[in-house]
Amino acid sequence: MKRSTGVMLAVMMFFQYFIWSAWYVTMGTYMKANLDASDVQIGYAFSALAIATMISPFFVGRIADKYFAAQRIIGILHLGGAVLLFFATQITGNTAFIAIILFYSLLYMPTIALTNSVAFAQMDDPGKQFPWIRVFGTVGWIVAGTIVGNLKIEDNAATFYIAAGVSAVLGLYSFFLPNTPPKAAVAGETTGGGIGTEAFVLFKSKPYLVFFIAAILICIPLAFYYGFANPFLNEVGMENAAGKMILGQVSEGVFILAIPFLFNRIGVKNMLLIGMTAWVLRYVCFAFGYTDPGSWMLYAGIILHGVCYDFFFVTGYMYTEKKAGAKIKNAAQGLFTFATYGLGMFIGTWFSGFVAARYQLGKNEHDWQSIWLVPAGITVAVLIYFIFSFREKKEVAATEAV
Length: 402
Hints:
single chain, mainly alpha, 1% strand, disordered C terminus
């Protein structure tokens, strides 16, 4: 891959995740401050991305990805997304706001898989090169969080304005990205019905099936962090909570660079176990450190996000890539995304909203210890299941699935 191509892909990733970070992390805080939203309504809003993840592959796989170049689809979707992000700030009711977030998510979520496809298509060695490109997405997330936190705009519409502006920029920029032609134009490759149904052949491998089930279940506790970490930190009195939360992405950026070196050295199972163990520790830290807004346990819980995400999800994408082989790798990645950010997060966002509402003590007061012990317990259960069920070779050999 040429250096100039790598730079273009890095900028693409930076914008892609800057947009997501700018509005998503603080959406719960925004909804409470401006829409007087309940915890259940916040859970509904966060479930919009999960619903979009389950629906959007049908558009990308069956229509767009079959007839249009990936970079052009990215451009159109982000330009449309910019309009919807701006429009979200004009809404005063929770139902209408959630609907707008759902429509926006239907445009945004396909671009995650599409940007990955554009990146992978330009790479000679994705296993080594992709983490170095993807890390710039983490940088974008960090920069957005720093801006939002330092400007102290967590609870107002400025977060959506910033995201809308950058979405428009990425929309225009995308038309200049390296050409990634429709899959139908590539000999021997099909779209597979949008959600990667031909990748079901991977379930013949018991280790992958065990991993796949664990990945869906682990997204339930993940939803608690995405939906309620920022409102939690603000409620317990942490200043510049959004700015502090970028420490999680800093650690993500550090650990993502270590994955290519560890993937074949310590084995897939050990990497996934480290990730899940970190999730337990994170929620325990939140559960017992909430009484002091400056507690080291709160900071530890934030910083552990990098281990939690990288060692499970980034490793999971790489594991899926190797298990699938060349013929069905795109379908396999689509199926993995559908199951995790779609089905798993949908269950998790709804469930987390009801749990938070169950332990609400007042308008701006919760029994946070009880709330955070719920995802901790779920993660322990998934961890035990995974330890006793997953058996895989230390170095995963790519299978030639047919």
